[in-house]
């Protein structure tokens, strides 16, 4: 065994990112590491590459215990990493990049002739005959990716970690990179492959380890798995255990229509789709990471304006060309990434809650402080936001309370259509249930909700209808009695079957 | 935090500095009335500090949005040249003022569009006008120092109103107006929001693009006022020297005012005190009679001391020391009360 990980644990304040994870990597295998957001993939990789120190557990490389304190140390020990965004210097030449930090020297100066020769020799096994004197930036992403791999292998040479290396490549380029990876496998390297493209995993990998919520779910040979089983492992629910949705099963609700999206789409982002949303309806969006769920929300909210089709309500077409336009149309959007897109960290809880309302009123009509206080206190009570006061900087609150504050910002504006992207991600169980109850209450009062979630049970519990996405396409719509975990999983896994 | 609490470090620095200058030059605080005008070193500080104080008002807003405006010194030169040209051409006082303010607004619009629409980093975007501005000013003055004799315009540089120099009134009024506008309307909140997190603010519906352009326009108009003051003071437009390096003093004033270059919370009053601190140093060094070659070194040294004392690390230490002393006193008091 090349690399053996036993009971590796890592805790961050408030979350146990990795909980006693085991993993074996053989020499000469490509081992896929899979899991949804927050499963612990990147934490595990960072513990291996020395970016994080583990709290507990052992890592054995070639029979020796290792505990790298820096990425540099991990590289010297033999663990090299290549990331999705190539971490090389585009304005240096290929040779300079390949030899960076270990340039051949002559009388103390860099021997550029020897450097070029070594660089060419390094690239030869990869079948890459390129001008090593040209700037790295002048080559395509795939070539750069291969150069990054060549550098990592030359530096480290035992274990190669590929962290979503194909995310920005097209099909031909993916083949090119995969040929290189297969060549390295034949040379006896142990390769860890992180990706959320299942096709590529089946195409390239020998074995797979699935993580979920910081724990290892399974390690298995790819040959003995089908897509359905793999997705079950990733999403953490077996077909039999599906909680059936009986509340709305027999009543096929006839709701007054609120919004229609016809042929909304954007090249390279999301294929055009049609969607009608009724008043008081909760439409769930299901799909794996990268399937186009968030992109659907971004198109609807004007963050990436649609290039085709149109949106309309009963009164006529709607302008959704920017978030401000969407807000004017009565939309709200609580994004997935609270820290960078939701909260304004340095400002107080009160200011964060009134920000949207104030922006809509315009700068010349400030909300009186008494009104701001009333609104803030009202939502702090209604959503049970735990804080020592309304004027506490929001950045100092916990994740769940920040999420509630972002929700409060939108509720204060009373939108008719609210888009919630992973509203329960990273918040504790109690707050989780509260937010689901809140969604239910809001829709009873007539608000329509688009709920994006990777938790299938959450979608089943909250949605009237579930749209399933795969590969940046809306592939299925499940309604009424068909809104069950099983149906959703099938639609995610199977091509066309449930459409 | 109360206003006085927010301004305490700057006020303490100013008082300490005034004490220091008075120790070296005992007449510093002397004020007398002559000809219906107050005169004295302190009045001189209020007057001479006007250009930097005016620039600091606009710079505070720009820095609150996480930006910076390096072009305000050059904008001063442009606006001074425009005003002098208008006066020299006999277009009248009102036209001269309007054209100068308009030129400042236009310069700010240029910066704002580069930053907010084109998406160039503020440092680089405003560097363009910083480089180009003096050239434009020279084109307007045709390379000469454009002088004029218009008592009406000169009033803005050397005039007197209710005992105080007009430039002092100008920065006091500008600072008060802008500060009130920011805090009585929602502008202050919105500017701070885009400074802390532009993306989140835009997603919440804040019109970040227009606001960003507006703060650069405000900085340009403030620079125009500063340009009018220096041009009126010397009764001539000097394209090469008007406002030279003043953008750096303005940034320094904002920083001494405790405003973070990373944007967010801002205080215009604190920046104005920062500008006064800088001018007190300048005037104090002159009055103390050191050879002029020492001026910049002494100034840099004093600024360094003020910034170090204000740094979060030092102030945290101070609070720790103060609290532990208080605790010590309480413990001693409790112990002494026992039989």
TrEMBL record, chain A:
InterPro entries reported in the protein's UniProt record: AAA+_ATPase (IPR003593), ABC_carbohydrate_import_ATPase (IPR050107), ABC_transporter-like_ATP-bd (IPR003439), ABC_transporter-like_CS (IPR017871), P-loop_NTPase (IPR027417)
Boundaries of every ABC transporter domain copy: 3-238, 253-496
Superkingdom field: Bacteria
Keywords assigned by UniProt, alphabetized: ATP-binding, Nucleotide-binding, Repeat, Sugar transport, Transport
CDD domains: ABC_Carb_Monos_I, ABC_Carb_Monos_II
Keyword Acyltransferase: no
GO terms assigned for molecular function: ATP binding
Cross-referenced Pfam families: ABC_tran (PF00005)
Protein name: Sugar ABC transporter ATP-binding protein
Natural source organism: Paracoccus spongiarum
Lineage: Bacteria, Pseudomonadati, Pseudomonadota, Alphaproteobacteria, Rhodobacterales
TrEMBL record, chain B:
Keyword annotations from UniProtKB, A to Z: Cell membrane, Membrane, Transmembrane, Transmembrane helix
Transmembrane portions of the chain: 7-29, 49-68, 80-103, 109-133, 145-162, 203-230, 242-262, 269-290
Topology of the protein relative to the lipid bilayer: Multi-pass membrane protein
The keyword Membrane is assigned to this record: yes
Compartments (UniProt record): Cell membrane
Keyword Methyltransferase set for record: no
Main subcellular location: membrane
Protein's name according to its UniProt entry: ABC transporter permease
Organism encoding this protein: Paracoccus spongiarum
